[in-house]
Amino acid sequence: MHNRQLMEWLEQHLLQLNLESTAIDYTEGYTRLGYSEEERKAMEVFESIARSLHMSVRKDQAGNRIARWEGREKLPPMALGSHVDTVKNGGAYDGVAGVLCALAAIHQLQLDGFVPVRPIEVICFAAEESACFGVSTIGSEAMAGMLDKEAICSLEDQEGLTVQEAIISAGLDWDSIQDAERQKDDVYKYLELHIEQGSRLEHAGKQFGVVTAIARPVRFLLEIIGQTNHSGTTYMDERKDALVAASSLVSFIYHRAKELSQSEKHPIVATVGTFNVSPNATTSVPGFVELGIDIRSVDDSLKSTLGKEIDHTLKDIQKEYHVESTIEKIVDNPSVFLDENFAKKIKDIGEKSGFTSMYMESGAGHDVMNMAKKWPAGLIFIPCKDGISHNPKEYASLEDLAMGSTSLTHIIKSETQ
Amino acid sequence: MHNRQLMEWLEQHLLQLNLESTAIDYTEGYTRLGYSEEERKAMEVFESIARSLHMSVRKDQAGNRIARWEGREKLPPMALGSHVDTVKNGGAYDGVAGVLCALAAIHQLQLDGFVPVRPIEVICFAAEESACFGVSTIGSEAMAGMLDKEAICSLEDQEGLTVQEAIISAGLDWDSIQDAERQKDDVYKYLELHIEQGSRLEHAGKQFGVVTAIARPVRFLLEIIGQTNHSGTTYMDERKDALVAASSLVSFIYHRAKELSQSEKHPIVATVGTFNVSPNATTSVPGFVELGIDIRSVDDSLKSTLGKEIDHTLKDIQKEYHVESTIEKIVDNPSVFLDENFAKKIKDIGEKSGFTSMYMESGAGHDVMNMAKKWPAGLIFIPCKDGISHNPKEYASLEDLAMGSTSLTHIIKSETQ
């Protein structure tokens, strides 16, 4: 298949998977929340493309769609996959790129007359993003047998819809979602392709990344409790301004994470992403701030160090600004290391195909982190423009999608013949 | 009237004006927004108390209630007043104390058999607080002939209700609200009593304050525009974090206003009261912050100095954190100085009555600032516990309310006999 034909195929099916007929919307982007009607529609497009490639498609108990091309022998399948759900006003490539390139790889292999020894699957996982309920990768957790149904059932979205209600309204049986679990010998290996969502590849001038580890978050939820008071009548030295106190903490977290990233072996990132001020009124000294901190590094001890420093700094801030505070660790996920041998093989195959690559870490979670707990697993990053992601402007070129898809064909061949 | 009877009268009518039957709610406080059904109910209580004191009551075109005790002669009335509207979850005393003490003063004078030469009015002004529409003292602006109807008509509350709609739904005629204006010779003097909303009196151990000037605000609305990005994949040194940039500005404003207050003759206060972060999501580097700054001092040039410094600091912050910003001055009110002679008279009368007092400035706006533009006007502060205000915990003792009411009787007597 000529590269130009491949790019045409990719462009056409990229539009289809984003439910577009003529052009990607880089202004409003896409909102296909997990277990929503919009995710279902994109999954139906996935199904229809897979069927056009003569694959069988089944929907499992967690809502994952599993497309399968049977091999010559009854062996555990080589699985590829990603997702089609998005954050609110997200981009057209996060998740879709992986599903699209895997399907394009099948298409290329079939055009080449390739007949696999072992079956090949392309999995479209349900509800990968945490945008809606604050919990991510529900579909792949279920498949890997890691889903804690009770822990998530009553989590709510902003409209008060619970995970359980969303799953039921997606036509699934709540009581049996954990039956989506697959056994160790039901899958051979798992491989995911995803946009980088960062700009390391761009900066390094490499064509793709081979991910060695996934930095998982530690998350804290903090309350800073000052005293709401009249902004006109409360002298500066009488204030207990929760916003001023919280601002001091935001500055500390940013600058300290920057320092640690420069001095330590592995990078660390720390973000205050949620920040809500109360009463949030023109004439009130803010009495209360709730804020959420997300810390990631593949070096779990480094996350722990920064967490302790934040705790310590918070105590200093309490004294300096006469506020009280609470801090709660709400997430503490150890980092996930991917299969070293598989990673080396992916890199070698890429190089033989003439594609430049580099080992790298992922700061974002992906379905592969769950699959890796049970099966040898790999993750390939392709570049996305300026590292912009979770944003309507998210963009990956057709050239890079084609390169990614072609890389997948080489890896699939090597694993299934 | 014995002080104990006066305190009983005050307690009973404090409850009534707060629409309570047994006790003040210091937990949830009171929400009687300007031109709301709740404000109307409290105004009806005001009317009924005034009528029980044999006063006539009229409602003007702006919704102010004007209770009047006729004098022996046809002279411009000595007017007292305040308001009964509150902020959201405000306290039981801000506004109510002034209306209550004025009515109690009338009651005391009547029990004493006092017959005024000139009429005495108690005015319950509409919509003094800016909690709802971001614009304050609508009723007294209308009475003083200062209301810019066009400037406020389309301001909205959080539910999208406009000022015009709220005024119409309060049963008023939008086209004629400016007819509430009174002429120079329709009023003799205006006197307001209000809780301090600060703790200067408490700290100084004085019984009441005689206000010489009202610090009016300069307000800025700022946007900090960074870049929303994935919190896990964007290295610290690649970020354009609008929250980190905004936090730096919040710190500067607080510390600089504190310094200036220590080094300059008049105090200055500066507050970031509104602060909204977007997208406000756990896994996103914040790309946008909108914040509102309120700066007050009776020294207008000091406000201007701090405003310029903020502008300058914002430019530094843009460079340091790679963000863009906009700044708009949305309010620029020169400070208001009250009538010096009237203030001296109030202080002298207080001292003769055995009450300790002090001159002071007001950091909060009050209806008196509008009335002072047209008529000689005075403002008395009584203490409120720990300076807490705009808060359910707001509290003034019955002793202090009684002291305030008794002071008013002495001043009224001196002005109307």
**Unreliable residue runs of chain A:** none
Give the number of domains of chain A.
2
Largest sheet of chain A: 9 strands, mixed
Q: Please compute the radius of gyration of chain A using only Cα atoms.
A: 23 Å
The CATH topology of the largest domain in chain A comes to: Aminopeptidase
CATH C-level name of the largest domain in chain A: Alpha Beta
Relative helix content of chain A: 25-40%
Identify the most extensive interface between protein chains. Answer: A-B, 69 and 69 residues
**Average pLDDT of chain A, to the nearest integer?**
96
Report the order of strands and helices of chain A. Answer: HHEEEHEHHHEHEEEHEEEHEEHEHEH
Query: What portion of the residues of chain A fall into strands of 2 or more residues?
Result: 15-25%
Say which CATH homologous superfamily of the largest domain in chain A is assigned.
Zn peptidases
Please name the CATH architecture of the largest domain in chain A: 3-Layer(aba) Sandwich
Enumerate how many helices of chain A there are, as a single number: 12
- The rounded distance between the terminal residues' Cα atoms of chain A is 20 Å
Quaternary class: homodimer
